[in-house]
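__Protein archive entry__

___
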Amino acid sequence: MLKSTMTISIKRKKATLVLSLVCFLFLHCCQIIAQVNYKVDINNVKENIPPTLWGLFFEDINRSGDGGIYAELIKNRSFDFPDPYMGWKLDPPRHMYAKHEIFQVINQSAVNENNPKYLQVTINNPEKISLANEGFGGITVKKGMGYELTVVYRQKTSGINLKFELINAENKSVGSTTIKPSSTDNEWQTVKAIITTKDTIIKGKLLLNFEGTGKIDLDRISLFPSDTWMNRKGGLRNDLVQDLYDIHPGFLRFPGGCIVEGKTPNTRYQWKTTIGPLEQRKLISNQWQEGAAGKPLPDYFQSFGLGFYEYFQLCEDLKAAALPILNCGLSCQFDAAEVVPMDEMSSYVQDALDLIEFANGDVTTAWGKKRAALGHPESFNMKMLGIGNENWGPQYIERLELFREAIKTKYPYMQLICATGYSPNPQFHFMDSALRKMNVDIIDEHYYQTANWFLMNASKYDHYDRKGPKIFLGEYACMSTRIGSPENKNTLFCALAEAAFMTGVERNADIICMAAYAPLFAHVKDWQWTPNLIWFDNSTSFRTPSYYVQQLFSMNKGTSMASITENGNVIAGSDSIWASAVIDKHTGEVIIKLVNPSGKGKAKKIEVPQLGNSKSTATITVLKADDGNAMNSLGQPLNVVPVSSTIPINNRTISVALPKYSFSVIKIRS
């Protein structure tokens, strides 16, 4: 009996062991089956992708304009700041009474309110008298380069020569030129000269030495590098525009942003005062003198050397569609929130109509003729116009209606971008509903949110109304801490959260026509807001991980949407992976984007059943780091950059390793 029992027990153990083995194999097989490969369907192609999908938003914040992309090196070049001596100092310093005996600021606003001041210099005794300009946190020049100096003067009494020197931190000259005024007919003269530098200066100054005696008026003292973008005199900083060009943007939104609204209607951005000769461009204080997070900048003004004509020109250079934004009769609703009465809105609406004529009108039209006179007889071919920035409420809706009626009557083809405030917020739902009832062209949504929000909202647009207005993501960026915090950083993890969200944008490119990260630029010393796409100082710049995410999406946007699924479902967070796929009919490529923001590497297989060649290679470009907090900096600009390689394709399947904290772009010849 015992033997029999033992035999039965052994048989049962063997059976249990076999059963356990079978169960293990079954479960293992089930697990393998459950890990269904990602599948890309290139036959079931969806909507076309708008060429404008990924673009840029420029606002003069963080010293982006004067002292940034606008290459002027002299601060307060025309003495028109409220403090006319801001940026200028006597060198060596003198008592204020002695200063005022020599220098007087003359207010000529009755003659030209756009250029209201000039400096009158009277020297009766031959002695060393100098003025120094500090530039924007110092003047930076490169060894061996020519710098074009412009001086506008009116000689009252002959005898004063003007010697200009570029001075380094050790107070030594690295280049100079002397201007000898010759005319005494009491007319304003413009003279130009080149200062060629014999050394590099990181933080220098421009020294103006007055030699001799006499009386002379000075109105504009300007200094530009010779290597401006496209070699345009008085133009833009070459390296910063190159940063923009390398993204290959589909559009450029300008000039803002909150500066469009102004703190009051009087300080709003008015495009008509930003075109034409510099003396006709009216300087105003910058909306961002008092920053949201960074230090106040009392010397932050807009000279409008970078104005609407230059913006349109830049759009052409970048091969990007122009998207200007105009004030809608409301000042910044975060500030004074002043409202222009409805019966005084006609000039605002007319400004919009005139802008369209300036951009697109024939040279026989009034504003088309002005454009041609500036050097561009051809149309800028503008097709979009934004009415208001981050405005909301019934007061915005009723003013928007005025613009819509006037613009659509005269220019029915013009696509109007309409604001929803600062979304998501309580006003957003009211605005979204109201704008949809109006059947507007394009609704502008803004998102400054945490990484978790971007990751969780990658499927946000999957269920949007496909028959309603198009969507423009006019501003978005991931906050590492919270919106408005000076502690926000441009980390890789934030960039990956943005990339995950962008896969959802790309998947819904049938309703999302445009998207832009914001803000674009920030000076490393003079900033009011963070994070930003590109950081710079007076000589160089660095691109953030978010920049490379934007670039990889923009350069690989394809022409039509394809599907990439797991078990028939979109990939938006499953196993901490986010994905999208497109087809580029121009290159014949399938382009797959995969985001792994987790701290663990993933191994995936991607099937593309319709590939013509079952065995080949694909290129893979990966943006990654071992630490999600990794960042780039001026000292380490290449700490986090994309790296490309090839991977094999076997049986129309790609086995791919997705490193931790990574964004991968795979390109396959179909």
Residues 162 and 210 are 5 Å apart (CA to CA). DSSP finds twelve helices and 34 strands in the chain. The two ends are 72 Å apart (CA to CA). Residues 54-71+229-553 form a domain with the TIM Barrel fold (CATH 3.20.20.80).
